[in-house]
Amino acid sequence: MQALGLLRRNFEHGVYPAHHKNQTEDLPIQRVPFVKDYVMPLGQHIGVPSRPVVVAGERVRRGQLIAEPGGFVSTALHSPVTGTIQKIGDFRGVDGRFAPAIRIEADAFATQQIDAGNAVDWQSLSLENFILAVQMAGIVGMGGAAFPAHVKLSVPDGIRIRSLLVNGAECEPYLTNDYRLMVERPEALLEGVEIVRQKLGAEETVIGVEINKPDAIEIIRQHIRPGQPVRVVPLKVKYPQGAEKMMIKSVFGREVPAGQLPRDVEVNVNNVGTIVAIADYFLRGLPLIERVVTVSGPGVTYPANLIVPLGTPVRDVVRFCGGLKGGTREIIMGGPMMGRPIASLDVPVLKGCSGVLVFTEAETARRKEYPCIRCGRCLEACPYFLNPSRFARLSKARKFDEMKAFNIFDCVECGCCTFACPSNIPIVQLIRTAKDDLTHRKESTG
Amino acid sequence: MTKKDPDLLLFHAPLLRQGMTTPKAMRDVIYALLPATGAALWFFGLSAVLILGTCIAGALLAEWLFATGESRTESLRDATAVLTGLLLGLTLPPGLPLWMAFLGGFVAISLGKVIWGGLGHNLFNPALLGRAFLLATFPIAMTTWVAPSGDGFASVYTSNLALPFMQAQVDAVTSATPLGMLKFEQEVTPLANLMFGKTGGSLGETSGLLLLLGGIYLWLRRDLDWRIPVSILLTVVIFSAVLSLFDATRFPTPLFSVFSGGLLLGAIYMATDPVTSPITPRGAWIFGIGVGVLVMLIRVFGGLPEGVMYAILLMNAATPLIDRYTQPRVFGRGVDSP
User: If DSSP codes are grouped into helix, strand and coil, which group holds residue B301?
Assistant: First the structure.
């Protein structure tokens, strides 16, 4: 069975949404101009919020540390522009709630040029200092989850990493930011791969790319130095190919046991953008102050792939793209399958923001919900082999505890079930409701 | 700055959908039944039109009567009542009095679906529940079979027109079904007649090939779980192959078993009703094998010539239990840590 899985290079189940990548896939990455106001939320990564090290009125330079990690599972923040700290206080976040952030006003007329930072001699760094350096560079998983990268790279004693798996699947429709990085900066990618692989002590690097990006596969292969232990593995175009456990199944034919991490099967997975960010820090001295964002969707005038300084309001990014078309109804930060809707155009671009997707009436029209007829399409879609139909029923009946017996916490909310449901039942939403209830009730009683 | 921002919605991702909707899936089943319905009209003429029409009318009336407010038109629009009425009609004898057919359609929806909580909540297949009700209430009318009349739309069986609560006068030439002939007279109907429909029997069960055709359409549209018809038919074939090894004259051949009676109609269109069959793949196999075994047990050892209806209803009852014990192995569970 395992040999068969290897032959097919795939994970089972999943769905096949239309790619929608043609709007932006041929557009080279360009830089958006600097604007006036920037907002850097202290909690834009998973984990403990960062702690500010600047005060209002202080002048900061682009790339300067403005907040230090608030704990181990936390990361540093740097100013995306040269300017003045305006306020440290509560600002509206992605979900519409207020959360602590730092507002910076950019200097008018500043060139925003930064001195070529010093390359860090990564080879002589001890593993401990390397991990600290990644944390202080503010690098997080750039695929969307924004999990601090240094935590992922910290491998406990006694666990050995055999392979570094670089995630270039980009299975979310519309998004082309990873694709453009692979095509435009293969050298940086392969440099970063070498740094991470050697620090992890891994034998080889595997770069997984869906086969709808043949030129990315070709260009990376051309740039691999002779003798460099890197393989590019073409993967079937299927959602969620880029979910790390699915990709491990596709590439290595192994299942990561539930509740365990990729390192438990001797693999470390990192997104293409994360690897490039690591290369940019260690070889060029650039902390994480900007990222590539795909601006696309039917509601945006000129779709684009952009380098956006972190903290730039979505309003300015969209304005650079010619503004919103009439009939805009919803803006998603991230991909259309797992991204989050934003409540206001003033929301800033964050470290985990891979896309700004603008949707119109056609995609957001209220779809009539029908009763579940137990057709089983969600079961055939779920890459975790869960029973989403049962989850939806139990959640509607508020029988949350019963859902634990059906492994609700194995669900990664990839959205395949909701995509596949002919009755338009918001299954993922129902599952999240149940998970929230179960975790918060546990907190309040425990 | 001057222009007002759009009012942004916060619909939860995923925003994309694959395009199939539940009413579309229901309509697909109706389309798949059209060839077999056409055959029923061809063989039984106006009587078929009247029976199917009254069944659907009864189903629609029940749906409309028990729904309230806005959901009234909605529940009629999702095509499930039409489908239930059509399926029920196809299982009825062509000479059945129309008022019984109407009552059957009404009972199928009201007792088969509405009292359970509506679409998606019923335990038993509504069409089969309606048929079981008719068979229990009007045993004679439900087992009086007429041969295809041959004069098309010119005439109607007079038994169709019996007044409510009056027993029907049987006028047409009665003819036993192939299964009845085998059971009670040890007479085997030629296979070609079974396939193309020149046999006595219910409206929809006379032409096996057209039923298969619709099944292939549904399979291509991914509207049915192929495991269920395949496992039912395989079980029946194997079961009767073994039996006919013992006594080829008393027991039916595998092909006869497949093409006679309501097996194809039941296996393709009723056992696959997603609401009342298991949702898990392994459950579907168990369900199908169960139906197949029960069909053969009833046909061969029971007092009735045909058993598809009871076989499916019995397995419907077992569906929640089957589902509970056939959950697929969750990804990452039950694998050893390295």
Answer: helix
- The list of chain B residues with pLDDT below 50 reads 1
Burial level of A100, CB count in 10 A (0-12/13-18/19+)?
middle
Residue A446 has pLDDT above 50, yes or no: no
Q: Give me the residue from A256, A386, A419 closest to B14, CB to CB.
A: A419
Q: Interhelix angle for A177-184 vs A272-284, to 10°?
A: 50
Instruction: Give me B47's structure tokens.
Output: 């009587």
Query: Nearest residue on chain B to A361, judged by CA atoms?
Result: B9
Name the DSSP letter for residue A409: G
Tell me how crowded residue B143 is: count the other CB atoms within 10 A of its CB. Answer: 15
Query: Residue B279: which of B323, B220, B330, B332 has the closest Cα?
Result: B323
Q: Which residues of A touch B20 (CB under 8 A)?
A: 377, 422
Predicted complex: ipTM over 0.90: no
Peptide bond into A240 cis (omega under 30): yes
| Test mutation, A94, A267, A330, A359, chain B, max B CBs within 10 A | A330
Question: Predicted confidence band at A340 (pLDDT cuts at 50, 70, 90)?
Answer: very high
Hey, what domains does chain A have and what are their CATH numbers? 2-25+133-284 (3.40.50.11540), 377-445 (no CATH)
Distances in whole angstroms, Cα of residue A4 to Cα of each of A9, A11, A12, B171: 9, 11, 12, 64
Which of B25, B118, B121 is facing A422, going by the closest CB pair?
B25
Q: Is B120 on the interface with A (CB under 8 A)?
A: yes
Chain B residues within 8 A of A336 when measuring between CB atoms: 13-16
- Per the CB < 8 A criterion, the answer to whether A139 and A149 are in contact is yes
Contact predicate A83/A109, CB 8 Å: no
- Which residue of B2, B4, B12, B15 is the best one to mutate when testing the A interface, meaning the one whose CB has the most A CBs within 10 A? B15
Task: Give residue limits of the domains in chain B.
Answer: 22-324
Residue A304 has pLDDT above 80, yes or no: yes
CA distance A430 to chain B (A): 10
**Of the partner residues A257, A341, A370, the one whose CB lies closest to the CB of residue B337:** A257
State the CATH class of domain B22-324: mainly alpha
* Per-residue pLDDT tens digits for A191-204: 999 999 999 999 99
Report pLDDT for A6: 46
Looking at residue A48, what is its pLDDT?
Answer: 95
Considering only CB atoms, B9 lies closest to which of A341, A379, A419, namely: A341
Residue-level pLDDT at B198: 63
Please report the pLDDT score of residue A22 as a whole number: 93
Beta strands A267-271 and A65-68 are unpaired
Residue A33 preceded by cis peptide, ω within 30: no
